[in-house]
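ok trying this again, last paste got cut off
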Amino acid sequence: MMSATGAVPRSAARRRRATARLGRLAAVVAASAALAVLPALPASAHNYVVATTPAKGAVVTAQPGTVSLETNEALLDVEGGSVIQVQGPDGRYYGDGCAVVDGPVATTQTQLGEPGEYTVTWRVVSTDGHPISGTWAFTWQPVDGIALADGSDEPGACGDTSAAAEPEASAPASESEAPDETSDAASAAPLDALWIVGGVLLAAVAAIVTWLVVRRRA
């Protein structure tokens, strides 16, 4: 109530100031709870492919010399953990399958043979310690005069993607084996979503609790 002179009682003014302060506190608590889970998001996801050479679906007319893939983060250089297997339309293998890791890029040396569609099957170790794998394809249409390689009936020394070494922290095969680079990114999405939902729920709970305190004191 207002006094006869129209002034607001001091007790009412104090309550309004206290309520305003608690309201600001609720906003700060909610924002802090949401931000607290954000640093954990990148660590929860596997690497995913951002580029390949040759590109998926590309038509190659000159010997590429190398075949490589690049992921969004640096890969782990684990002995026997990185394999890039190149197989031609004749079913033969080209190159020894051994891949060299340089940061986020894994590369293998290869010379192609019979023209047609080539399939690249790869396996690398993600920055979080989990092996990831996949495939992509490109078309080989050499111009006249290009020397062709003979290839091999069997994968090279490092060509067995199923037997690549796994670090101690690796995931079960059902989690780490993906059919292509698109599914590798998709496999990380549900885990990211769980972190995001958890952060939102935590922020909501913090806001509700603070609001109840404000309401009770008001």
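PB: full thing came through this time. The chain has two domains: 11-40+192-217, 48-179.
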